[in-house]
Amino acid sequence: MFHRLHNRSQTLLASIPNAVKGKHLRIIWPRWEGNPKGLSGPLKGGVIIDYLAARLGFTYEMVRITENRLEPAPNQRGLFNYLWDGKCDFLVSSVATTWERNNIFDLTTPWEYACLAFLIPVHGETANLKSVVKPFQLPVWIGLIVTVICVIVVLTLIQRYLQYMEQRSGTVSATECSTHLPGNNSRLSNGRAGRQYVYVFGNLLSQGGPCTSNRLSFRFVAGVWALAAFIFVQAYTSILFTYVVAPVNQPLINSIYDVADSSDINLLVKKAGTADTMFTNNNWTGFYEKIRDRINSLEDSRCVLISDCIKLVTPGSRNVFIDGYAYQLDAIKEDFQKTGKCNLQLAGDTYSSLLVAMVLPKRSPYTDPINKGILELREGGFIDHWDLWFRPMPGQCIENFKRGGFKSPRSRKYPSLSFKNLSGAFLLFLVGTSLSVLAFLCEHIISMTGRLRLCRRN
């Protein structure tokens, strides 16, 4: 295939001076099989090297390395040392372009537009028990309870006051005469007082209820409550639906701002990697200060190898690993191949788009030919196409690495509601049924006690 690409592009770049033709280059590619396993580097770096060698006509040899960082540390070498020492002509890695690096090295034209993604554990489905109380905040629930008590008290007081005034004046309304019997005033009063509860809770549960008085003052309070109950019920039911159908396996985070706002989230980074450099090698305050605190809060938050960080992202943990999007896809794929399960997923939002380049020594004669070869690959779409070769993602984990954004209607799926979605309603039913049974038993016990006392007296 490389020979066909080589012949096809000869006519396009025949006029370009090729200073690298016939040369022998020393190349560093961290994922070369001769290097220790676990080093970070582009998965498709090998095929890029083969294409450039066939296209530009040079030969190469791989330089063996053990370092897994770009910049050197006080007592540790980095990959950039090989360029400074003249032991490497071309570094094939994912190097984020910065102004400082561009002053020291020759950075190629960006061969990939990357971003930082967050690898999080997949949480199991949890019962949606709080769905029945989530539509209203706590102050609203308190206000609703207080309102119900106040309405019941006001209606009861009005009813008793009207009965007192009627008994005092000796007049009884026509509607009350039909139900009034001599000697049963206490039963009548208690029955009508009980009806206030039926009316108030009946309207609140959209069941309605009888109004026990024809007096204007009583009906005015009852009408106001009926209107208020209608608003409460409509607001509750309209919002309740969204909580019932909400996913029962919410992700640990959705974006980096969730990491900054949550004190129990542990953020993991590759030591001296792009994310570590971006957040810790500065004294910026605000958002960056919170992220630094999350990184420094865990002793093992900086990992030499990416695999060390991925091992800490386990189901049930509060650990989040930030790294390049492509590397996170590799982690999901490798974990699925080992376990047969989709235990890892990506957060919905990514962070900080990056221009990724390769590196040559400053003023290298090979920079221009290699730049033009990379441009050929970009324009032909080969770099993106090779992702399908080297990174075939398992179909079972497709939903685990989809980033947030627009999805076509064909890709949308509307799953049926599970028991866990409606667990709150079933819990409410069980609690209500248990209370009714308890009330029945209490009434039965009290009734039996009264009968025993009556029998003893007789």
First-residue to last-residue Cα separation? 110 Å
Calculate Rg over CA atoms. Answer: 37 Å
Helix content: 40-55%
Mass-distribution shape: elongated
Largest sheet: 10 strands, mixed
Question: What is the ordering of alpha helices and beta strands?
Answer: HEHEHEHEEHHHHHEHHEHEHEEHHH
Mean pLDDT: 81
Structural class by sheet pairing and helices: alpha/beta
Structure annotation, total helices: 16
Q: How large is the share of residues in beta strands?
A: 5-15%
Quantity of strands, as a count: 10
- Note poorly predicted spans: 1-6, 8-16, 172-191, 404-412
Properties at a glance:
alpha/beta; ten-stranded mixed beta sheet; 12% strand; disordered N terminus
Short précis:
This protein is of the alpha/beta class. It has helices spanning 2-10, 45-56, 80-84, 99-104, 138-169, 174-177, 185-204, 216-244, 256-261, 274-280, 287-296, 306-312, 325-339, 367-380, 382-390, 423-457; strands spanning 24-28, 59-62, 90-96, 106-107, 112-121, 266-270, 302-303, 319-324, 344-346, 351-360. Strands 1, 2, 3, 4, 5, 6, 7, 8, 9 and 10 form a ten-stranded mixed sheet that branches.
Describe this structure in words.
The chain is of the alpha/beta class. It has helices at 2-10, 45-56, 80-84, 99-104, 138-169, 174-177, 185-204, 216-244, 256-261, 274-280, 287-296, 306-312, 325-339, 367-380, 382-390, 423-457, and strands at 24-28, 59-62, 90-96, 106-107, 112-121, 266-270, 302-303, 319-324, 344-346, 351-360. Strands 1, 2, 3, 4, 5, 6, 7, 8, 9 and 10 form a ten-stranded mixed β-sheet that branches. Strand 1 (24-28), helix 2 and strand 2 (59-62) form a beta-alpha-beta unit. Helix 1 crosses helix 2 (45-56), helix 5 (138-169) packs antiparallel against helix 7 and helix 7 runs parallel beside helix 8. It is elongated. The relative contact order is 0.16.
